[in-house]
Amino acid sequence: MNSFAVEVEDLVKAFGKFVAVDHIGFQVRAGEIFGFVGPNGAGKSTTIRILCGLLMPTSGRGKVAGFDIMKESERIKEVIGYMSQRFSLYEDLTVLENLHFFGGIYGLSGSLQKEKEEEALRMAGLVELRDRITRTLAVGWKQRLALGCAILHEPSILFLDEPTSGVDPVSRRNFWGLIQQMGERGVTTFVTTHYMDEAEYCDRLALIYQGKIVALGTPSELKLKTLSQGVLEVKADPLIPALDLLRKEPWISEAAVFGDRLHVIGKEKADLEGEISALFQKHGVLLEGTDWIRPSLEDVFVSLIEREDQR
């Protein structure tokens, strides 16, 4: 049996002269949480729509659950769960009525349908809200209901397109708890996001930028591979003039603002702390402190995007 739930090779999607997906390739292992990470407009939603059989690619090859994306899109739709950015719920129906409607679409009926609806209510924590009109629910609860609707037919692969966009941080964390529960049950989850803190929850990641995959690996691998020299956190006053000074220096690889501090990556063999101290002293910038920190995925992503933009 093939151990890959999703396989993509040399995939392209063009809209006229605009290439939204530019010759990408990757594999998603069965049972893993695979994050497809990138800024808005990077090609995430286009890719996920192709994989769900909702959009035909311009060229390339791919399989989802063993089915060909070019020839067997209807078969793919039968075995996957899909949750779009805009939850496709019926606002005037109750929570239970929405589940019942989607269960019917997936071909469920009778006692099996009732059983699956109750399971979805329990999984999503919606048992007490089953008779609430959907439009009266908070966004976080609508999100849980949309996930419940997507998994009624027990799909082996779940596609979630920006599922936490516009949701508060607590609801986002709770939602990722549900995704991890799905993973423990053996469900493969392919999730797009532009939140770097969420990317940390994934088993593996593909970072996509301007239609191209710029990195692929586990969160730890990406940090080690991209920023092996580490990141120097710098507190300076004034902050933005300090950033401008650093970006002009040849011994700086990258520098960016993170909150009220700068994250700085030096070129190999640079005495970063010493060089920064001398530079700031020369230009009248107050260096309030430095600290070597473990790089975050946001550091990795900023670094990779800056490298791409310099090409």
Q: How many strands?
A: 14
Number of domains: 2
CATH class value of the largest domain: Alpha Beta
Oligomer: single chain
- The H-level CATH homologous superfamily of the largest domain, spelled out, is P-loop containing nucleotide triphosphate hydrolases
Could you characterize what this model shows?
It contains eleven helices and 14 strands. It folds into two domains: 4-218, Rossmann fold (3-Layer(aba) Sandwich); 228-294, Alpha-Beta Plaits, CATH 3.30.70.100. With 311 residues, the chain is of the alpha/beta class. It starts with a strand and ends with a helix. 37% of the residues lie in helices and 30% in strands. Helix 4 runs antiparallel to helix 5 (139-150). The mean pLDDT is 91.
Spell out the key features of this protein.
alpha/beta; 311 residues; Rossmann fold; elongated; 37% helix; 14 strands; six-stranded mixed β-sheet; four-stranded antiparallel β-sheet; Alpha-Beta Plaits; single chain
Summarize the entry for a quick read:
This protein is α/β, with parallel strands linked by helices and 311 residues long. The chain has 11 helices and 14 strands.
Topology of helices and strands:
Blueprint: E1 4-15, E2 18-29, E3 33-37, H1 44-51, E4 59-64, E5 67-68, H2 73-79, E6 80-83, H3 95-105, H4 110-124, H5 139-150, E7 157-161, H6 169-184, E8 188-193, H7 196-199, E9 204-209, E10 212-217, H8 219-226, E11 231-237, H9 239-247, E12 252-258, E13 261-266, H10 272-283, E14 286-293, H11 297-310
Parallel strand pairs: 3-8, 3-9, 6-7, 7-8
Antiparallel strand pairs: 1-2, 1-4, 4-5, 9-10, 11-13, 11-14, 12-13
Helix pairs in contact: 3-4, 3-5, 4-5, 8-11
